Amino acid sequence: MTGRWVDAAAVTSDAAAATSGVAHAATLLAFADAVVGSDDEALARARAAVLHELGPAALVDAAAVASNFERMVRVADATGIPLDPPLVMLTEPLREELGINRFGAAANTPPASAALRLAGRVVRPVAFPLLRLVQRLRRPR
Amino acid sequence: MDTPSYATAPVPVRDDLGAAHVRAWHDLARPGTWWTGEERVAIGSEVRAAATCALCRSRRDALSPYTVTGIHDGPGRLPGAAIDAVHRITSDPARLARPWASGVIAAIGDAPYVELLGVVVTVVATDSFCRAIDVPLHALPAPLPGEPTRARPATARDEGAWVPSIPSGAAGGSEADLYDDLPGPAPNVIRALSLVPDALRTLKDLGGVHYMTTAEMTDLTHGRAIDRAQIELIAGRVSALRECFY
């Protein structure tokens, strides 16, 4: 809720990285790709790039996040958890845009009811402005 | 006991990360709720064996992983269904399917399956971190003696996943104290391992230092050496590469 817009398309599109609004997006994406992949040389190059551009503390943090999600995807996929209804409601257009609905585990989430889809159309335009307001109100004065 | 250390890492590793990995390795070695310490360490060994397992490689290359049969490479000190579960979860999580999981659960039980999963993901995360910062994998710990507690949460119930979980709020009873650190109802990904409360505690302990605590998640400006947007970019990318819908 910094007021900065970022383009989530960078998550699934390298072409969107440069204009994503996320600092060092391309370097961090290459690192994430290499952590998930099995090419040790690619990982070494990606690691060096993170070190050069962001420094050692950022490398450790990036590695920690990537490895955390290597863990969490397995928790989700091995337990078949459905997406929580508020997230179903809030993320419907984003999931379409990012191509996430084609993933096999999408089958674990029941289709949204007509009521939930309607609620999403109403809630989505105001959800993030409301979240920003809540963040501002929670900040210590 | 072999204790994880980053003293000779090529980059300084945060103390909280190192400490959490030491705790995770202690948890790995001790008797759990359903598996002995020896079995838990054997699960860790199978996670590592999956990396070079020929059967896993064949399955990954196949159009359907369920059409390829064989024996997994590895120490083989666990029941066959457990070994298969460890290898599949480690090597091809995006193609896990409910009928397969039901078969494993029928063979070993739902709570042992959840605990197995908890051990798998602990080793996966720690090994992935080591590889990412170019540190040798930590030696698996020597198992500790003792028997599992076999304590099953009384309030766990079917909440729509493949395994039961402890509900949030009043329905969870006293066992819902697992979620006391959350500002609202526990999301499904937090409740996923709650059939084995200690597995969830380890999950949260590591999550707090690898990613962020549940309290920090609601602060969209939270970051460390990388900012929140960078954190979520990496998280989203890894999830997309693994084709994780959730």
Describe the structure.
- The complex is a heterodimer of chains A (about 140) and B (about 250).
- Chain A has about 140 residues and is mostly helical.
- Chain A has helices spanning about 25-35, 40-55, 55-80, 85-100, 115-140.
- Chain B has a domain at about 10-150.
- In chain B, helix 2 (about 35-50) crosses helix 4 (about 80-90).
- The longest helix of chain B is centred in the middle third of the chain and has 23 residues, at about 110-130.
- Chains A and B meet through helix 1, helix 2 and helix 3 of A and helix 4, helix 6, helix 7, helix 8 and helix 10 of B.
Defining traits:
heterodimer; A: 141 residues; mainly alpha; globular; B: 246 residues; 10 helices
Calculate the mean pLDDT score of chain A and round it: 83
> What's the rounded overall pLDDT mean of chain B?
93
H-E order of chain B: HHHHHHHHHH
Provide the helix percentage of chain A.
Answer: 55-70%
Through-space gap between termini of chain B: 36 Å
Helical content of chain B stands at 40-55%
- Encode the helix/strand succession of chain A as letters: HHHHH
Strand content of chain B: under 5%
What composes the largest sheet of chain B? none
Structural class of chain B: mainly alpha
Low-pLDDT residue intervals, each spanning 5 or more residues of chain B:
none
Number of helices of chain A: 5
Using DSSP, what is the number of strands of chain A? Answer: 0
Radius of gyration of chain A: 18 Å
What is the general shape of chain A?
globular
Euclidean distance between termini CA atoms of chain A? 17 Å
Largest sheet of chain A: none
How much of the sequence lies in strands of chain A comes to under 5%
Assembly state: heterodimer
